[in-house]
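RESIDUES AND SHAPES:
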Amino acid sequence: MKLNNANILITGGTLGIGHDTAKLLIESGANVAITGRDEKRTHKAAREIGAMPITADVANPDDVRHTFQAFMEEYGKLDVLINNAGIGLSRPLEELTIEDFERIYRVNVFGAAMMAARAAKIFNKQNYGNIINIGSTAATNGYEGGSVYASSKAALRSMTQSWQKELRKHNVRVMLINPSEVTTAFGNPDREERDSQPNKLRGEEIAWAIKSALEMDNRGFIPELAVWATNPF
């Protein structure tokens, strides 16, 4: 697809991968809206890169409806949904609670699904569209303490595969990007970005992968793409 004048919606776009992706796509000529739960942070992040801010929590169905209403009122058409919003939790198995699963799944699984469901209604009518889900290499390689987070990303991976089979007949490309460890604010309760390290991935690398996947001619798409640091050791 051509990114110039494409209308793109990115959830969780105030920091990290979402913010870096929004910045890169705007530099490529796209019109981009970003969502975030904190109004002040969302508006600040949007001003920095020239994006449209939408204060919304993907875990809240009312906010999901508001997001699409605001986006369509502004742009009239949706070309790409990037399901980037996500939260994490690392906890030993014996300490896990139902509430742990519910909190993570409401964002990483239910929120992504409800955003995609709204986008699918638009894309099916248009007979065209793109969904990019930001997964994790943890979806296929669990780790100690990762019962909740890794399983949420495994669920997102499975949903991606189902949406691919469901939406291809409507010319909708559904793609999954699986980053390994990225030095962002992810998992930091203070939402402060971690310092970049020369042997670790940055948000920029994932943004580049997303941009490249989108720019393939619409006749083809990459179902799943993993991005690893070359030498993280």
Q: What stands out?
A: The first helix runs from residue 16 to 27. The chain is about 45% helix and 15% strand. The domain at 58-76+87-227 is CATH 3.40.50.720 (Rossmann fold).
